[in-house]
């Protein structure tokens, strides 16, 4: 998952997209879409990933010598679609209203700095893991996000408010 800046990780640095968006949602800030949020990503629920790893461990004769992708190609979205879905689900789990401007576009240079390079699409090929172990992920993206954002709201909302209050008080 990564970290929430200033709460369970460094105050500086850029966490991965889920943690980055979660951090902004918890703080009531717009989600930053790098280069318009057109990059595509897939997300797998940790419970599904653990199930896949356990199958590898429990079935060495079918797993040894193979390289497996563990992911969920059914959960493919653009970063923009992810931002919209996360905003909608976070409003449901937190009871907070949606921001008037829930996203803002930023350039990759502005967000990451000079020289950043990323792939536009990361979709796992599930052929080998399905053939060898019969494994397929089960958790949909909305369900994954609902569970994750509920946990994060319960775990981090008060800590974020304390960080924001300290920041405002020290000005």
UniProtKB/TrEMBL annotation:
Q: What's this protein's name? A: NAD-dependent epimerase/dehydratase domain-containing protein
Task: Spell out the InterPro entries in the cross-references.
Answer: Epimerase_deHydtase, Lipid_A_modif_metabolic_enz, NAD(P)-bd_dom_sf
Boundaries of every NAD-dependent epimerase/dehydratase domain copy: 10-71
PANTHER family per UniProt: BIFUNCTIONAL POLYMYXIN RESISTANCE PROTEIN ARNA, UDP-D-APIOSE_UDP-D-XYLOSE SYNTHASE 2
What organism is recorded for this protein? Ceratopteris richardii (Triangle waterfern)
Q: Which SUPFAM superfamilies match?
A: NAD(P)-binding Rossmann-fold domains (SSF51735)
State the source organism's domain of life.
Eukaryota
Q: Name one Pfam family in it.
A: Epimerase
**Signal peptide boundaries:** none
């Amino acid at each position: 998952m990564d970290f929430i800046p200033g709460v369970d990780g460094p105050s500086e640095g850029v966490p991965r997209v889920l943690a980055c968006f979660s951090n902004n949602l918890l703080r009531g800030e717009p989600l930053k879409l790098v280069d318009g949020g057109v990059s595509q990503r897939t997300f797998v629920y940790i419970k599904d990933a653990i199930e896949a790893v356990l199958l590898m461990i429990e079935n060495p004769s079918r797993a040894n010598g193979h390289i497996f992708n563990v992911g969920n190609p059914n959960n493919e979205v653009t970063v923009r679609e992810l931002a919209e879905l996360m905003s909608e689900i976070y409003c449901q789990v937190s009871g907070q209203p949606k921001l008037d401007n829930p996203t803002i576009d930023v350039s990759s240079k502005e967000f990451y700095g000079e020289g950043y390079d990323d792939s536009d699409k990361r979709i796992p090929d599930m052929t080998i893991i399905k053939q060898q172990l019969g494994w397929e992920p089960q958790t949909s993206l909305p369900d994954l996000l609902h569970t994750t954002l509920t946990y994060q709201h319960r775990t981090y909302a008060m800590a974020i408010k304390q960080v924001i209050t300290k920041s405002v008080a020290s000005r």
